[in-house]
Amino acid sequence: MRPTIFFVIFLCSSCWLVAQGSQDRPAPEKTQVQTRSASSSLSDDDITAMREDIARMRGIVAQMETNLAFVDTTQSPLKHQFQLEIDMWNTVIKEMERRLRPRAK
Fold first, then answer.
1. Three-class SS state of 41
2. Cα–Cα nearest to 82, from 56, 64, 62
3. Over the stretch 43-74, which tens digit does the pLDDT of each residue have?
4. Are 95 and 87 in contact (CB under 8 A)?
5. What distance in Å separates the CA atoms of residue 84 and residue 37, rounded to the nearest whole number?
6. What is the pLDDT of residues 78-105, one digit of tens each?
7. pLDDT value at residue 49
8. For a FRET experiment, which of 60, 69, 88, 104 has its CA 20 to 30 Å from that of 1?
9. Quick check: 103 and 88 in contact, CB under 8 A?
10. Please, are residues 6 and 80 in contact by the beta-carbon 8 Å criterion?
11. How far, in Å, CA of 7 to CA of 11, rounded?
């Protein structure tokens, strides 16, 4: 079971890293402008879909944390990698939630 868990997590994290690395990174000031316009242009359907995605992602991260408990009790590189990936996904989820937060004007 451990090799299967490792393979799934490795595959997901590899795909995410490849996708992130292949994107062109805009200048910081462009990123801020794009984030503001993107959040204001989301339709109600997009917002609902993003909330559902966040809920699904939280469930998957909870499963990852549960699986982490079954990895060897010593601090192995594999266990450390799992913890880093959980932290990374929690960061992505928080960023998505910030985008959904209504702006106080």
1. coil
2. 64
3. 889 999 999 999 999 999 999 999 888 877 77
4. no
5. 31
6. 888 889 999 999 999 999 999 888 755 4
7. 93
8. 88
9. no
10. no
11. 6
